[in-house]
User: What shape does this take?
Amino acid sequence: MTQQSLLTNRIEEVQERVAAACGRAGRSPADVQLIAVTKYVSLESTGQVLDAGLTHIGENRWQDAAPKWEAFGNRGTWHFIGHLQTNKVKDVVGRFAYIHSLDRLSLAKEIEKKASALGIVVPCFLQLNVSGEESKYGMEPEALLPFVKELRSMSSIKVEGLMTMAPYESEPEETRPVFRALREWRDRLNEAAVLDYEVHGLSMGMSNDFEVAIEEGATWVRLGSVLVGKE
Assistant: This one.
């Protein structure tokens, strides 16, 4: 079986699993977007992913993404999903349509500065460390509302939603409280009416736990090995 055939099979299987999870939650599969995480696959494999119709591409580091973006930047919608250092903002803003890891004021100021200079608005997901793991990036959930108040003066940043990473669990069901908590924080943000618009996005769920994340309201799931493979 060719690599493209294997990829097609994985896509079909993931789409079936997404549809089943949506069915259990009373949601439409159209409300869930797949981000194909290509950080561990080659330039050639990234091209095959795009050829297969997966147009939302997720990368964690600019150094690794650069050759792929140079080759295929105009063919997809690029999502920066890793920890973003302030000195890399100049490389990411203007190339990546979405940033999923805004978690501190210094980073927000740098994104605002670069986006303003380019005359664009950058949709950002605010990363919360819901699980409290020391190894994970993201702000403490209690810092969300004060942080968003700071963002109100930054016209080149749009709060697209919230993002989190759940701990890796051998039993995906154990991740449910993390995903549920992120949804509740999003709802709390909207109830507080800190912004003059409602926030809908929830970027949560990866290869191991995306079905649970969808059941809890994920609108974007970030899928690597289960979708694009490992080469």
